[in-house]
């Protein structure tokens, strides 16, 4: 038999059943509430899409609902997915950009994107819009957007200006963890702090070496993706997303989703109004806080700037506008206050951009609210496009939506004095001042050096300047002194200073009279500058100009004579030769620039033996030497050809002429002898381009016979070849000025000539004119073409 049950262990069966039913009811009601929240978020997205249709279609709510249903059925998607697409097209915000990138990435991978991506992001946004606290925001983000990515918990931190963090929303953690982490003091190294310091998204792994954070006591091998929650350049908090196990490095599309959700959190932290409904506007009238900040800046004795954020059309922070400069402001580059006030910080001080520079510090203070203080910070500036560095103490603080920037330049007077002394030394300038009442004269150290005097010597009065100058400059100095002393107008004069050490220097003195309130002469201030090097440079430059003008005149005369000589012997075109069934046409085009008069030559003549001599050559060099060398070789060839020798023998003799009987002439040449009876052309070449034979509409080069430049060797042998010409054949002899290009090799240039030569023409002259007209050569050289046609 069982004994009596102790009083403390007794629980009526009815009570136990009642508690179980109550617990089940509470659990069921909680699930229903969560489901209702999810449904409400989805309905909010659909209602927002309906509103967009009402505005765009000009219809009523019922018609918009029917239109949405019809469009969803036609597209084969759910009402929620279509609503998300409509909102994306209308909003064109960060969420739209992320969704569009995901779709593009999926298209590139040849597989459709997850249909819930846009829906998840927009549904999460709807949940944030309907939330009345950050806790509900965290729940909505996890439920709609992050749980499908495998996340199990979300934490939202609020960042204070003192660098502390407050947990304002947490889901997926125990109540004990949320209470323990409700506040993180400044300086504690946590995962959220790491994202704030880097001002960007970071991925951290928990463990012995990882940073501390909420939930690390229960999940020791998990991973976190932490990103700052910013709006308009200000970081208001941090979004921390938790995974229960280690994550591999995540693709950029996942990180962009989380950054878009962090932006929703930022707008909630700032205003409690969702991003799609919030319009960021800067008030045209300054707020009371801004007026107080301007008053504070004006009460400071250090230079102060009040900066306002400058954002682009999409609300992103790009720069800071100088809203106000105080009365004690001194520009780093010496500009007036008006040139700085109202400008953009990066436009006014472009050299302050870059990591660790002033702009980076201002941006960090505005984003985090953490004040910045620095002793002896280097501030770069531009003075007349010359870089200048200034050492100053800097303080930066954020006040609401504005930034106060202070600096105190260290030892400004000494710095400016050193800068002035340095400039005077480089410019060889010395300053002076003469007191008209007392006769006291003040010189700086540079002026004593210019006059060749020791620093203990007495300065030279301006009125005694002529006694220390060359006697020929006395009249000019007298006019200068009368202008300054009598007419009391600024003046300057250049003179030769005769120093005591026997050195003569060319000096320019500038003086300006200073008048008192009654108009009387009080003092004279001015400067001496040593312009000796400038004077001698001008003298040398003048002599050089005269010499250059003489040289140019001689060169022009030589070019004119060379051109006349060339034109007298080598006219651009000669009458065609028509004899023995052979037609010969010639074209010559001189260089486009007269100073490049060259030594290209050609000849076509019937010899006493009834053979026809044709030749083309090119002398190295330009001007008189090239023209006279051309005359020598051309006339020598005519005389040698009368002996009846063959082409190879003629080139051998011509080489002796070039090597021994001229002033070191080097030339290329190709020549041929045509026998009218046999229609055979015997030819030879000396370093020249081979002739082109056009037969039956096809163009080809003759074989590359052996033969060196004329004049290169004392004695040499030349190879001779022959070609049997047929009726309607055409043979072209030419110089390199027809084909050579600086950007192409010679083979490509010859290929162009062959292709162009195959073009059908009506006459031999027309073929030569066509080649000259369409020549692509760019060497600015002479061009000769001899065309031989067989009837």
Topology:
Layout: H1 13-57, H2 61-75, H3 79-91, H4 94-108, H5 117-130, H6 134-146, E1 153-159, E2 165-171, H7 175-180, E3 183-184, H8 191-198, E4 202-205, E5 223-231, E6 234-243, H9 252-270, H10 288-298, E7 304-311, E8 317-325, H11 345-348, H12 358-368, E9 372-383, E10 386-399, E11 402-409, H13 412-427, E12 429-435, E13 441-443, H14 445-451, H15 474-486, E14 491-498, E15 504-515, E16 521-530, H16 532-569, E17 573-579, E18 582-589, E19 599-606, E20 612-619, H17 623-641, H18 647-660, E21 667-675, E22 680-686, E23 692-695, E24 698-701, E25 720-724, E26 730-734, H19 746-757, H20 764-773, E27 783-790
Antiparallel strand pairs: 1-2, 1-6, 2-3, 4-5, 5-6, 7-8, 7-11, 9-10, 10-11, 12-13, 12-16, 14-15, 15-16, 17-18, 18-27, 19-20, 20-21, 21-22, 22-25, 23-24, 23-26, 26-27
Helix pairs in contact: 1-2, 1-3, 1-5, 2-3, 3-5, 4-5, 4-9, 5-6, 5-9, 6-9, 16-17, 17-18
GO molecular function: phosphatase activity; RNA binding
Protein name: Serine phosphatase RsbU (Regulator of sigma subunit)
Domain ANTAR: 26-87
What are the defining features of this structure?
791 residues, alpha+beta, Beta-Lactamase, Phosphatase 2c, domain 1, six-stranded antiparallel β-sheet, 27 strands, disordered N terminus, transcription, RNA binding
Q: What features would you describe in this structure?
A:
The chain has 791 residues and is of the alpha+beta class. Among the domains are: 288-410, PAS domain (Beta-Lactamase, 2-Layer Sandwich); 415-530, PAS domain (Beta-Lactamase, 2-Layer Sandwich), CATH 3.30.450; 569-790, Phosphatase 2c, domain 1 (4-Layer Sandwich). 38% of the residues lie in helices and 26% in strands. The protein has 20 helices and 27 strands. The strands form five sheets. A six-stranded antiparallel sheet has the order 3-2-1-6-5-4. A six-stranded antiparallel sheet has the order 17-18-27-26-23-24, covered by helices on one side. It is flat and about 135 Å long. The model is unreliable at 1-15, 98-115 and 273-286 (pLDDT under 50). It comes from Saccharothrix saharensis. Keywords: Coiled coil, Hydrolase, Transcription, Transcription regulation. This is Serine phosphatase RsbU (Regulator of sigma subunit). Residues 541-568 form a coiled coil.
């Amino acid at each position: 038999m069982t004994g009596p049950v102790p009083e403390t262990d007794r629980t009526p069966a009815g009570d136990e059943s009642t508690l179980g039913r109550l617990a089940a009811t509470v659990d069921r009601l909680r699930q229903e509430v969560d489901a209702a929240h999810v449904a409400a978020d989805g309905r909010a997205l659909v209602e927002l899409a309906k509103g967009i249709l009402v505005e765009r279609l000009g219809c009523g709510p019922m018609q918009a609902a029917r239109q949405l249903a019809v469009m969803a059925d036609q597209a084969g998607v759910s009402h929620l997915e279509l609503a998300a697409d409509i909102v994306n097209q209308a909003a064109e915000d960060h969420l739209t950009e992320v969704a569009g990138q995901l779709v593009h990435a999926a298209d590139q991978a040849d597989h459709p994107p997850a249909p819930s991506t846009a829906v998840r992001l927009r549904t999460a946004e709807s949940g944030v819009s309907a939330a009345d606290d950050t806790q509900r925001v965290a729940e909505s983000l996890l439920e709609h957007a992050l749980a499908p990515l495998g996340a199990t918990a979300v934490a939202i931190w609020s960042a204070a200006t003192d660098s502390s963090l407050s947990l304002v929303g947490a889901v997926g953690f125990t109540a004990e963890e949320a209470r323990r982490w409700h506040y993180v003091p400044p300086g504690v190294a946590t995962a959220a702090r790491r994202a704030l310091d880097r001002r960007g998204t970071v991925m951290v792994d928990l463990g012995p070496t990882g940073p501390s954070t909420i939930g690390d006591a229960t999940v020791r091998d998990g991973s976190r993706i932490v990103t700052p929650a910013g709006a308009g350049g200000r970081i208001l908090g941090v979004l921390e997303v938790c995974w229960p196990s280690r994550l591999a490095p995540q693709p950029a599309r996942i990180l962009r989703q989380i950054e878009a959700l962090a932006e929703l959190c930022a707008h909630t932290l700032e205003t409690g109004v969702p991003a799609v409904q919030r319009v960021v506007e800067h008030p045209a009238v300054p707020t009371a806080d801004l007026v107080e900040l301007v008053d504070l800046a004006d009460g400071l004795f250090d230079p102060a700037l009040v900066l306002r954020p400058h954002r682009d059309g999409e609300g992103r922070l790009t720069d800071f506008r100088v809203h106000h400069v105080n009365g004690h402001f001194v520009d780093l580059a010496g500009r007036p206050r008006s040139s700085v006030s109202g400008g953009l910080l990066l436009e006014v001080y472009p050299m302050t951009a870059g990591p660790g520079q002033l702009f980076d510090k201002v941006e960090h203070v505005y984003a985090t609210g953490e004040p910045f203080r620095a002793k002896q910070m280097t501030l770069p500036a531009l003075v007349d496009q010359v870089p200048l560095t200034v050492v100053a103490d800097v303080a930066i603080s954020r006040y609401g939506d504005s930034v106060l920037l202070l600096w105190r330049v260290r030892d400004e007077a000494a710095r400016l004095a050193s800068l002035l002394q340095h400039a005077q030394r480089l410019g060889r300038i010395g300053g002076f001042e003469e007191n008209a009442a007392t006769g006291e004269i003040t010189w700086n150290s540079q002026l004593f050096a210019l006059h060749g005097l020791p620093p203990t010597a007495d300065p030279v009065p301006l009125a005694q300047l002529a006694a220390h100058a060359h006697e020929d400059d006395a009249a000019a100095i007298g006019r200068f002194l009368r202008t300054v002393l009598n007419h009391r107008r600024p003046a300057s004069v250049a003179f030769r200073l005769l120093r005591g050490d026997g050195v003569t220097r060319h000096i320019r003195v500038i003086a300006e009279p200073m008048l008192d309130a009654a108009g009387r002469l009080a003092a004279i201030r001015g400067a001496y500058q040593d312009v000796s090097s400038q004077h001698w440079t001008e003298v040398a430059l003048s002599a050089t100009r005269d010499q250059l003008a003489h040289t140019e005149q001689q060169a022009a005369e030589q070019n004119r004579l060379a051109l006349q000589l060339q034109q007298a012997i080598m006219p651009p075109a000669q009458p065609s030769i028509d004899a023995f069934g052979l037609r010969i046409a010639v074209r010559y085009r001189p260089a486009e620039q007269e100073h490049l008069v060259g030594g290209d030559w050609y000849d076509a003549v019937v010899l006493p033996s009834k053979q026809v001599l044709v030749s083309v050559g090119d002398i190295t060099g330009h001007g008189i030497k090239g023209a006279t060398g051309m005359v020598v070789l051309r006339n020598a060839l005519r005389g040698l050809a009368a002996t009846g020798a063959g082409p190879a023998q003629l080139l051998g003799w011509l080489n002796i002429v070039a090597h021994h009987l001229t002033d070191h002439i080097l030339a290329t040449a190709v020549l041929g002898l045509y026998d009218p009876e046999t229609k055979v052309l015997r030819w030879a070449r000396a370093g020249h381009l081979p002739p082109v034979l056009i037969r039956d509409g096809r163009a080809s080069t003759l074989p590359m016979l052996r033969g060196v430049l004329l004049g290169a060797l004392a004695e040499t042998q030349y190879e001779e070849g022959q070609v049997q010409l047929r009726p309607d054949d055409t043979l072209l002899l030419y110089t390199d000025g027809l084909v050579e290009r600086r950007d192409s090799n010679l083979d490509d240039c010859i290929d162009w000539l062959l292709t162009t030569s195959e073009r059908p023409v009506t006459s031999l002259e027309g073929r030569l004119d066509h080649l000259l007209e369409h020549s692509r050569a760019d060497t600015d050289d002479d061009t000769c073409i001899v065309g031989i046609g067989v009837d």
